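Proteins fold. Shown next:

***
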Amino acid sequence: MQERYIDRIRADRPRWVLLAILLVAALIPALVNPGTAAAAPTTSVTVKKLASDGASVLAEKTVDYHWMMNNLPVLGDGSTHYYHQGPVFVDDPDEAREQTLRWNQAEDTNVETKDMGALKGTNLKDLCDLVGGMGANDTLRVKARDGLSKTFAYKNIYRYSPREGPMGLCWYRDGQYPDSGFSEGLRLVWFADASTNPWGLHVFGNWDWHQAAEPRYWYYYQSGGEKYPTTTGLSVQYVSELIINSSQPAAVGSTPGKAPAAAFSAGAVAGPASLTVQFSDQSTNGPTTWAWDFDNDGTIDSNTANPTFTYEQEGVYTVRLTVQNSAGRDEELKSTYIQVGPGSSASAPTGAEPQTTQNPTDDPPADEGSTPAAGPASKPALSPALIGLAAVLALGLAYALWARRRGQ
């Protein structure tokens, strides 16, 4: 009986090996692209109003897109397409003329491929009003689930011009919702007018933002030592929080919010190799621990509040700060924040604010002759995990073939 059972196990061994190979193969997408799960769309947003101390929560409300759709005015009709504008990759020896060309007042370059889709969404103004609204000196931080964020002024939320249009939190695109195919939702998109460009499209152009926002809110695509204005990089994806930083004092006897809000700055953010950067923690609400990742490679490089770090190799670096105390944690990610290499300025670029992830649609076409610099943090095409997985598959297949031949 026992021998028969062992023989049966041996006979079925190739099947078990094949099953193991199939299970491992199913894990390949997660190993090759581990960020896929983290980049899942959001279906709800938390709107929070902080007092002038930056910590006390004056009001807070969480709503999902179903509630927004049924209880607040809807932006868009689901058939009209809205566009942002990518960088205008032109160079000119005359700096003033170069800037004029790059801001592209005519709104006729790098537009048609920046289609955000046929959209529906909710005006950020209406969402802010759920917690008491904004004052003239307040700012709004639009934060994604992965920690990326952009900050905007009161006037762009409440006093927008017809040309730039309202800022909308989009929960519908091309017939799909965040839980049924709208993979970048909830997404921030401007519902601009169609008054400027030659095609009559609803385009949120670079010059629209130049005229509407203060320089510190402008966004640049950076390639080497060059900066190209663009509005696609303002379109935050996977939005999970809207945080109003108000000038309103906390109520007497109120309980301050205890979780820290991560923020940081740096001295020189560009320069030649062996660039030493002084980082300064600007987090609020008393963090007790700090974790700095100076090249966003997943390794903690420093645990001090205000560290210095030397970048020895040329490239463009993303910096992440995670802060924590007994009540919670928060992080801030500044994408393409540090530039190391020839032609890089030794001071912070004018108007350069913490950036969201570089929008891939900002990459120049091959015939425009401008290739974004790849930072040293870029991973090799074949990671050790993938190579190891290939070896396991090869061994498993070889064993299955051997076992089958032996059984014949």
Helices lie at 2-26, 28-32, 65-71, 95-103, 124-128, 154-158, 206-212, 384-407. The chain has two domains: 2-32+384-407, 37-368. The CA atoms of residues 108 and 199 lie 8 Å apart.
